[in-house]
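Issue 218. Parser rejects a valid record. Input:
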Amino acid sequence: MKRALWAGLVACAGVLCGQTQVTIYNQNFAVVKERRVLELKQGESEVRVADLTAHLEPDSVVLRDVKRPDAIRILEQNYESDPLSEGLLLRKSEGQVLDFEIPGPQTGEKRIIKGRILRSGYVPHTSAFQRYGQQYRYSQMVMASPQGGGQPIVEVEGKIQFGLPGKPIFQALDPKAFLKPTLLWRLWTDRAGPHETEFSYLTGGMRWEATYNVVAPEKGDMFDLIGWVTLENMSGKDFENASVKLMAGDVARARPEEGQQFAARAELSMTAPPAPVSERAFDEYHLYTLPRPTTVLDREIKQVEFVRAANVPAQRIYVYDGFQMDRRYRGWDYMAIRTQPEYGTVSNPKVWVMLEFRNSEKSRLGMPLPRGTVKVYRRDIDNRNEFVGEDRIDHTPKDEVVRLYTGNAFDLTGERRQTNFRLDTSRKWADETFEIKVRNHKSEAVEVRVVEHLYRWIEWDITVKSMDFQKTDARTIEFRPRIAPNGEAVITYTAHYSW
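Output the parser choked on:
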């Protein structure tokens, strides 16, 4: 009985004895953790694990006995990542005679002919294109092309032909053949019998992101917020009834891989709303745990609500940043720029509209918000939502200020022009004067934050100004005029640079 059980375990790659856990990172990878019971012999045993993702990282595999961490040693691990296909079977049949099924020339009745596989034309390891670079990719693609030798060669009735003469018919599969990516372990243990083990690995093909919907009334800026977690599984494996965690933060990887975008279908849950997603600090990151086990199928997008807040206080901000980069000066250093009179004279006429709020408990939030896209809606007079803008936020800790750019104001315009520039290269100074006009075509008064960058050098002083300003950093000042309905604000200032 024990021998039969062990053979069954080898064939089915172990018995799952606990819930699968998946921790998905917002950098296009995940950690899969499982509990398996392995029936092992004393000494060496062979175990095949086939229920894996297609993007497993072999060097990340960890296997340990739950009760005795040093009870099992992996003597050898083979990762077979090229699943069974017609091309692979042809390669394994090179030099052998196979039956080929072809239709009759007139009746269409199928008949069988025999042919010897001289060359399969199969080129494996396309998954290594990225790892080994462009030269490897080019060589493999040449091999795969008909001109480069990628076409099968078959001997039929003493004659050579390129391409298969018909549909190949293969012998029954070897019991050791694998239809999915497979790990083959040679394990050693000092005790025969069942071992409860923890098995984990890193895998690509999974990602998550946060998305937020903000709904504000037609007038005023207090809003309701709903946050969604969107999971995407393109790993090649279904995770049924799994415990899912989401890691937010910038986790360092030694070999970062570019993420791939896939198309997938969405599944919408029709059950009652779950308890809120729980969040806690973990190392230097934040870990979000879904409230209940969930099934995430391969090639599926799943969404789960993780934050909801009503009546969040916010402030609408208008910002006029009139500086616009002149492409002629891209790549120039500050020493060269500071003596160019034309630099900084290109004007941006748009006034930005921004929504600002604090991620605090007082504002009915206070959960660390993971990086994601925020869509902003306003309710119209008919009480229906109208889309008014979209922005992205970075990972935002508790009590930090969030500022969303929602677009440009239609009824506010800006104008910025240089009115004077004086340069004395021998005495190492320059004076620059600007005039900024902001016009308000609204029916109500508004405050506009006029941002000016002191970009010519780090040593500067404002010698003349038409109104007070705030110094927001070492090279930025901000004027805040309040503009009457259908009015205009005119700001002038002179900056003196020395070096």
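Fixed in the parser; the record now loads. Helices lie at 2-12, 86-92, 129-144, 334-337.
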